Each structure stands twice: as structure tokens, then as C-alpha cells.
Amino acid sequence: MANIIKPEIPNRILFVDDEDNVLKSLKRVFVDEDYEVLTASSGKDGLNILNKNEVSVIISDQRMPEMDGATFLEKTIELSPNSIRIMLTGYSDINDAIKAINKGGANRYITKPWNDDDLVLAVRECNDRYNLVKRNKYLAELTRKQKEELEQWSALLEERVKKQTADIQKTNKELTISNRRLGENFNALIKTLSDLLGYRNKEQISHSRNVANLSHQVAKDLGLSIEEVAVINVAALLHDIGKLIAPDQLLSKPPEELNAEEFEQYKHHPIRGQLIIDPIEDLRKVGLIIRHHHEFYNGKGFPDRLKGQDIPIGARIISMADFIDRSIKKIKAPQAVGLSLYDMKEELGQRFDPSLYPLFEEPVKRLYASLSKTYVEIEKLVEKKRDIIKFVVDGESVKSIPFYEYQPDELETGMVLADELRSGSGVLLLAKGKVLTQININSIKRVYIIDPPKRGVLVVKEV
To answer: Cα(448)–Cα(463) distance, rounded to whole angstroms?
Structure first.
């Protein structure tokens, strides 16, 4: 992967004032603070310092000979655009302060004489803001590079995922504490990681999302804490991340069709999943759930043969959600939901926790209700063989069930995709048979701006 240097946070502040006693006073205020304090007695000296040093916060007096504070701060914008600027000014110099804000990009002004505690607090806030902006830029660049290089990951995938996951999750976790919007970025990156398997197995994307949806609802209905629900949700999204380094044949067949040797390899993926995210201290609870999501309630699962209540509650929930989603997709029929719930009920006390089953029935029926309807409609269309046509993509003739081709602005909620939808560069967006929601439609519109597909969206015809 292209080398992206993680930003070093300088915690370095610069005071500019033509009075030496003022500079000494300012340095004394920060003697017990964790900052490297630089001083300059003129605007010119301050600019020279900025040429050689990265500075997070610049504090300048307004009234200085040769170059006033507003002019100095304006010149610093080119040298250090991300630095946070503060103007020190007397009570009588409010107009100068306004000038400094408008012309010099000052973030705030502090009047002389200052209150030491207020000044320290202001510098702390500005320094934190500088750090957040710098880390966010690093995170955005790192994310962009990841998307460009996903298809190039091969033998070094495990090590890269470890390092990049650690960097991304640690950085996002720190930022979400103090910034709601960066918290949304963190959630988006978790989703991206959960979708990585889709580049090797397209069904994995919807599988991870369905397992997370069910697990989140059951954990919530069980009355677990907000933190426990959040941990289980993330573990569900990433529960199969250990398969990233599995051989292709393990991804192309369901577990029950693997031979003895292949199944032994398959049993390693929950441990590998835990190892991949273990470097991130705040995700170690997630890793423990991932490790145990294939344990059986009767103690005959893997990798550690835990039994009953010794299995983490999150792992017991995800085990059942994983079973349901795989079973429904395997059956692919209108009665899939009922049959899958019946099969899971038959395993209560053996493979699954009996106390959790009642919490699954309603969420499963809600989540897969539209899926059952979709199977019925598609089966009818194929059976009647009406209006079977061919369309051409890149010169190749492809056979499809009857469909309409719509542009993004023509889509409506409730429409069913007649074919999988991929971006122009080949990223799988939605699977065939997906019932469109408003959220899906909004996402499709954005994709047609960022990475437009070569054709419109194919939607199943009503018969």
C-alpha cells in the first residue's frame, strides 16, 4: 500500500509580542502545561519561526511596530494554514480584534490583561481542534488509499488488515469521543471492513448485514446495555473477517459440504478473526465474540468447545443469526423463513441457547418478509417466461428475467432489482432480488455521481 505517514501532533504554540515582559509572563502561564512554547518579539521573527516549525496554535498581540497583529496573522495563513489563531488585544482595541478575525483568520480574541485560567483553557481547546483536523485528514487519506488498493491485496492481506484495521479503529475511536460526525465515519469504516469479503464472495456482504441486523435487535430486546448491544453489532458485522485469509474453496462451499481436511482449515477462521482485530484494545471484546460464534450450546462446537452460559452472550446470539441467514439463502423459497426457524428450533439445547429462540421469531419474520415476497415474484416471472429479452453489456449477450431499466431519479421504494448492481469500477452495491428502500435509492444516486455504472438500474417487471 502507498506510504501514508501518520501525523505527529506537535503540541507546539507560538506567542508573538513586542514586549519582552509579556512574553515571559505568557511562558510562565504555560510552564506546567504539556506544550512546547515558542516566542517571537515581532511579526517578522514569528514568520521565520513558522518557516521552520509546525505550530498548532498562534497567539499574537495586535499593537506591534512595523507589522500589526492582524497583518501578521494574515501572513501566517499561507505558511501554516491549519494553525489556530488567537488575537491578544486591549479592551479599547475591539475594532482591531474584528479586523484580525476578518483579515487574519483569527479563531477568537482575548483581551488584556488576560485571565491565566481562561487563556490556558482557550489554548487547550484550539490545540485539540488542530489535532482533530489533522487526524481527520490523515484518516480520510488513508480511507481513500484503501479503496484504491482493495483489489491488490493478496498474500499480505492478513498483515495489512491487522495494521490498517488497528490504525483506522483506534483513530476513529478517539475522534468519536469528541466529534459526532467523525463517529459516523467510524461506523462507515466498520461497514467497509465487513464488506471486504464481498470482493471474494458477493453473498458475504448481505450476509454480514443481515446477521448484524438480527443480532442487534435480539441483543436490544434482551435488555443488554447500550455498550453491549454496540459490541455485539460490530462483532456481527465482522464475524467472518477471519475468512479473508482462507483458501478460495472454503468460501465457495457451505461448511456442511467441506471434506474433513477443508473443514479443519475452516475451523481456524474465528481464531484468525480475533487475531486480526486484537491489536485494537477497544475491540478486544468484539474479538472474543468472534472467536466463539461457532461454539455449540452442548459443548461440541469450536474452537474451544465452550458450553452453555460459558459461551459469551454475543456469540450465542450471532451463532443463531448466522444459521438463520445461511439457511434462508440456501432454501430460496417462499417458505424459507418458516423452515429455517423450524430447523433452528430442532437444534435448541444442542447447538443453540433455548432461552434466545423466542427473541428471534419476530425479527426474522420482519427482516425476511420482503425476501419471501421477492422469491415468489421472481419465480412467477421465470415460470411464465414472459418477455424474456437480451441486453448487451460490453459486447456480451446476457440473459435476464423480464425487467425495466430505470435511471436513479426514476426509482421508487418497493421496486425489486432484476440483477445485481455494481458501480462503474465493479464494486458490488446491491444483490439481485433486493427490495429498494429510500436509503438504497439515495445511495444509488450518489454512486451514479461518484462512480457511474455503464447502464441504468434493472428492475423486475410486474406481471
So the answer is: 29
CA distance 418 to 403: 6
What's the pLDDT at 389? Answer: 30
Question: One fold for both 12-128 and 153-372?
Answer: no
d(CA 61, CA 336): 74
Are the C-beta atoms of 49 and 38 separated by less than 8 Å? yes
Q: 403-406 and 457-460: which strand pairing?
A: antiparallel
Cis peptide before 65 (omega within 30 of 0): no
Q: In angstroms, rounded to a whole number, what is the distance separating the alpha carbons of residues 432 and 401? A: 11
The β-bridge relationship of strands 36-40 and 12-16 is parallel
Domain at 153-372: CATH architecture: Orthogonal Bundle (1.10)
User: Do residues 139 and 183 touch, judged by C-beta distance below 8 A?
Assistant: no
Residue located via cell numbers 467497509 = 192
- Judged by DSSP in three states, 70 sits in helix
Residue 124 CB neighbours (<10 A):
14
The class (CATH top level) of 389-460 is alpha beta
Claim: this prediction has a pTM higher than 0.70: no
Q: How far apart are CA 147 and CA 141, in angstroms?
A: 10
Q: How far apart are CA 199 and CA 152, in angstroms?
A: 11
**Residue spans of the chain under pLDDT 50:** 1-2, 178, 182, 374-400, 463
Could you state, in order of their start, the residue ranges of all structural domains in the chain? 12-128, 153-372, 389-460
Q: Which residue has the cell 498483515?
A: 159
Pick the CATH number of 12-128 from 3.40.50.2000, 3.30.230.10, 3.30.43.10, 3.40.50.2300: 3.40.50.2300
Under 8 Å between Cβ of 142 and 167: yes
Q: How do beta strands 428-430 and 421-422 pair?
A: antiparallel
State the pLDDT at residue 200.
63
Q: Any idea what DSSP says for residue 462?
A: P
Rounded-to-integer distance, Cα 376 and Cα 263, Å? 34
Total residues found in the chain within this entry: 463
Helices 157-178 and 116-149 cross at an angle (nearest 10°) of: 150
- What pLDDT is attached to residue 184? 57
